Amino acid sequence: MPARVLFVFGTRPEAIKLAPVIEELRRDPASFDVRVCVTGQHREMLDQVLALFGITPDFDLALMRPDQSLTDLAAGVLVEVRRVIDELAPRVVVVQGDTTSAVAAGLAAFYAGVDVAHVEAGLRSGDLSAPWPEEANRRLLSVVTRFHFAPTEEAREHLLREGARQVFVTGNTVIDALLRVPEVDLPFLTPGRRLVLVTGHRRENFGAGLESICHALADLVRAHGDVEVVYPVHLNPHVREPVHAILGGTERVHLIDPVDYPAFVTLMKRSTLILSDSGGVQEEAPSLGKAVLVLRDTTERPEAVRAGNVRLVGTSRERIAAEAGALLRDPAKLAEMAQVRHPFGDGRAAGRIADALRSAICS
Predict the structure, then answer these.
(1) From 301's CA, which of 77, 172, 288, 308 has a CA 20 to 30 Å away?
(2) pTM of the model
């Protein structure tokens, strides 16, 4: 009888990174009975990814509420995922990354006596306040996880130092997804202009940090007449309101709604420079040969910094404008950063995860 595997996730990044694993396990129905439960806190963005990868959830908890606190979300996931576990009796629950839904689903599985498999395990910034609450989430999740799928050797070393046992280095599944996605047409881009792609949504940057980032972007377009900024603005009102208040109406700054994954990958491919506080972008950009200035003071992905594609610049208005301006003025410096490198794997991580699970739970 195939082993029942329950995937639980709720955000777009989780869906992107778990889709290749779901696809890989479904190729072997003799070994795996795959079920999918979505918690649904990124409703519109999540649905885009589900449609792209052809995933129909078996359970949709629809837990998103306006201005929902992390406590309320965690409590809802803990209760509702436990009900799903009781109904399905899975052999293992698979979660990804460091979201509140991941840690709460992992805890629900642990309380039910079900093994937890953690995809993208072992990332550490060393600072519980940055990123917040993600650094705490991933550390807590590691305590209740049985099967740790680390994207890199460094992540594996973190886990081993903390006492984890069943640790598998697989590469990052985001590269699997990235290599599957085709380019699409983006008619709103202006021919002849250099594209600076921006994402910014981290909770620790809410308020003064995000406002400083926005002022830096305005400074950047004023200083470089051939540059246009494209900023897909997160749906969270703590992001949308200050971004539109500061940058709305600014010439050559396009504030757009979140785009689907193929459009975002196309934006990355066509960009001259990327400014982002996203962990996923730090992983994807080196494989695309792109330079990224990270709008944070710490990163749990130091492999990208060592590779040369990523540089931490924080949220200082002056530093962001200076660092980005220096790269835009010096093609040689930019080219040195913007080379194709693969610190996060070869696009075959999902297969390695499937092999490890097959050996561990299928008998």
Answers:
(1) 77
(2) 0.91
